[in-house]
Amino acid sequence: MTYIRLDKLRAIYKPQLPEVLEHPTKLDVSTNAATPDERIAALFPHTAQLPVVSLAEAGAEAEATSPLTVGVLLSGGQAPGGHNVIAGIFDALKMHHPASILYGFIMGPGGLLRGEARELTADVINCYRNTGGFDMIGSDRTKLETKEQFEQVLLHAHRLALDALVVIGGDDSNTNAALLAEYCRSVNDPLCVVGCPKTIDGDLKNGWVETSFGFDTCVKVYAELVGNIQRDCYSSKKYWHFVKLMGRSASHLTLECALMTQPTVAIISEEVAARGLTLGDLVRQLADVIVDRSRRGMDFGVVLIPEGLIEFVPKVRRLIASLNRVLAENGHKLHLVKESQIINYIASKLSDEDEETLRSLPEEVARQLALERDPHGNVQVSRIETESLIVTLLGQELEKRRSQGEFEGNPSPLTHFFGYEGRCSMPSNFDASYCYALGRTAVALAKEGCSGYMATVGNLVHPPKEWIPRGIPLTEMLTIEERNGVDKPVIAKALVDIEGAPFRYFRDHRKEWAEGIAFRYPGPIQYFGPSAVCDATTITLRLEHALEPEEDIETIW
Ligand code: FBP
After folding, report:
1. What residues form the annotated binding site for diphosphate?
2. Which one, 100, 152, 191, 439, has least CB within 10 Å?
3. Which residues line ligand 1 (CB under 6 A)?
């Protein structure tokens, strides 16, 4: 019996390619860009009117080429497949011209500002093909937005003789890319800036971006873990598991995980906001399910909680907006306030209602909401222990019901947080191929000087051969939002659409999941085997494209 390590075998996996990327490409200017919001047009006078472009086979027209020098950086949180985007860029550059050079900026946009770059040669790239993580060059969350920063970027770009820079990142990082592209054009600098849509959160999607890379793999890892917990739960029948899942604001990861595993309950933040539910309402609804199951002899279950839930409870959401304003106006004075008095100081600047909400939260949660933001102004929801908060409030509610003679059960709660476990997993076949195609598309755009574009690949529910690479002007995705109390151009985070097909499917089935045992156990990601298992993407994407969530087994064998 021979033995080969999966990671070794995986290193030689050949990502599947869209047909058009099998050959040299030329641009096909297909659609005129929609007229952007006039505030965006005013802020982006040089890049707001670009057309959407797709790629076509260059055929005999393929011209003799000269080498290209490209820089790449990874920005924000890790997402499976980032290394394959870089491998796609590298291979496309070398096919374009063997003397082309790829530099990787070390530790994200911060490294770009410091000019810390290393050449990525075949030896480096080959070590990272089809691997998870961002460790090839690292990442950070530095925000690029000032003229001084852009000048610094151009200084390093000129030193390295870069023709193009590829920014692999989420909504905030691609906003940075749009700002940088606009700046370059405004000073007549030829540096071409291209973005790629990354984030496990799945919230960088719109009419042009069907899904961000990393979501597919990450959610499959979480679904495996949740499935394992469900099987354990159903075996011992003695625990209630409360599982917080990463995903920042949007609940896409929780919703998809629920579709894959059919837990007892899944909370979707966007619905909480739409229905104006309070934490008390949520806790009472959960208590109803627990009491009902207990009466029927089922003192066990699994509850999925999205990481960003707290931000969507309307009172807390209003509080966060007020805190952002208070911090924007008074942040510079905070160092003068004694550490133990900071929350009191901030509370004194809030309205009575907001102060009451702040003080109703456990002190640790209040501090997180009041003080901790990432460089883009986002509340750092992964650090808030929402699952423990819910278990505490639920315990109080169940004790109340017990004292009123309404509940006799004895639920034993366990909490979990699945976040970082999924972000660096070995990419699924879908993400491995999707990311590689994104990298190849980024170079196809860069060699044509398409600056201010996002490389996208569409038609993703079909086999990779039929995928459609395109370049979408980043300004098409921009809108104005208040961040840290100031209006800024941003790519809006796409939240779960509670009128959309994935949520509707969940809504139509959740009663049955809550009342009985509908658990599914998806098992680990499969890299080899039948394509219907190994290459399939998420139920969310299938439902969004009006496909059944799964095929009948007879249709496959
Ligand atoms: P991005 O938005 O940068 O892709 O990051 C995703 C994410 O994993 C969120 O789900 C999570 O809230 C956050 O990063 C955690 O950030 P950090 O890595 O800084 O702890």
Report:
1. 77
2. 152
3. 76-77, 79, 170, 199-201, 246-248, 307, 381-382, 423
